[in-house]
Amino acid sequence: MPELPEVETIARGLAGRIVGKTIASVEVRLPKIAVAPAGVDFARALRGERIVGVSRRAKYAILELSSGRSLVTSLRMTGRLVAQESGAPSYRGTHIVLRFTDRSRLDFADLRTFGRMRLVEPGEPWDERLGIEPLSSGFTPEGFIGMLAGRTTPIKALLLDQQRVVGIGNIYACEALWEAGIRPSRPAKALTKAAIRRLHHAIVDVLSRAIDMRGTSVDDYVDADGLEGGFQNVLSVYGKLGEPCPRCASPIVRTVLAQRGTWWCRSCQR
DNA sequence: CTGAGATCCTGGGGGC
DNA sequence: TGCCCCCAGGATCTCA
User: Fold this and answer.
1) Which nucleotide's C1' sits nearest to the alpha carbon of A93?
2) Which domain holds residue A179?
3) Does residue A221 form part of some domain?
């Protein structure tokens, strides 16, 4: 599942591969994937656009286009955004192909077809409901304390809520809660300020380390060059049912919380 | 506002 | 071995 570190890695990789290129043609093989404003033809509108930048907001990769429009891509669970040279084979489930004037390509593949590429007009609000970026200076321990105040929601569910803090998915929610020593089911309002500070630090730490290691490849994630990340090799609890906790050696358990598999240590997460 | 549940898909795992 | 069934999971929408 591409979360913040994976999308950040993809965006950085794409920036080095496709910025400056001009779109010659667009092939839409599965129309529902390509979203455009009413009356705008996705493929036709993109033709002739030059890629002037690639960025990330939350779990979205954003191609900034020369007209001022943006191409906002969500990968959901199995989406892949890969820069390809001319003639390179496509991944299975490739639904949209951007062909550049130098004949290289940008492929969007998604086996489960939950992802989207959305063409956004200049100034069109598409991210109004997104919360704060956890790696921005605006994400402070004090602000995080205020965000959790009075909330009865299990802390893990709150971490997954993109209207609060963006970019955290199931993997990094589990890992950050383990690092902070917090039980995933704890109501947010029941956490002490000290625990919230630990969690704030753990979120920033886990996401930063995962970016340094170019993301976590547990399912389908690959970066813009088609390469796997490295953070799956240093996970502490995610997917580790029955394995010893790296901190206290108790076996890792799996429960379901907010409809998601949740791995944690009964002994040292309180 | 808040939280719960349904929805979308398909590969892969479990059961027999 | 083969086949069928069922489920995970992010974001969005509906409903209470």
Assistant:
1) B10
2) 141-264
3) yes
